Amino acid sequence: MDKKTESRKQKLAYFWTAATVVASIIIGAGVITHSAQVLPLFLAIVAILFGPVCGVLYLMEIKKGVLAVDDDE
User: Fold this and answer.
1) C-alpha span between 5 and 12 (Å, rounded)
2) What is the Cα–Cα distance from 16 to 21, expressed in whole angstroms?
3) Which of 30, 41, 56, 62 is most buried (CB neighbours < 10 A)?
4) Residue 70 to residue 63: CA distance in whole angstroms
């Protein structure tokens, strides 16, 4: 099971690496060509998407108990 999980994580890492490179190329090309729409559009999309994504990931961490305080002292 551990090998399967590691393989899945590796595939996911490769996917996000490729997505980041493609997005960087598109944004960079838009900025270089002095496009007035590429950068604000990308920033708006990122702002709309990452708010809920961060909220969901935060709730998942809370559910795991990562932020729990131990009173062992």
Assistant:
1) 11
2) 9
3) 30
4) 16
Residue 73 pLDDT > 60? no
What is the per-residue burial (b if ≥16 Cβ within 10 Å, else e) of 1-38?
A: eeeeeeeeeeeeeeeeeeeeeeeeeebeebeeeeeeeb
- For 40, the token pair is 């604000």
Asked whether residue 25 is assigned to any structural domain, the reply reads yes
Residue 12: inside a domain, yes or no? yes
pTM score, whole prediction: 0.53
Structural element, H or E, at residue 48: helix 38-64
Range of the domain at 34: 3-64
Is the confidence at residue 1, as pLDDT, over 80? Answer: no
Work out how many domains the chain is built from and give that number: 1
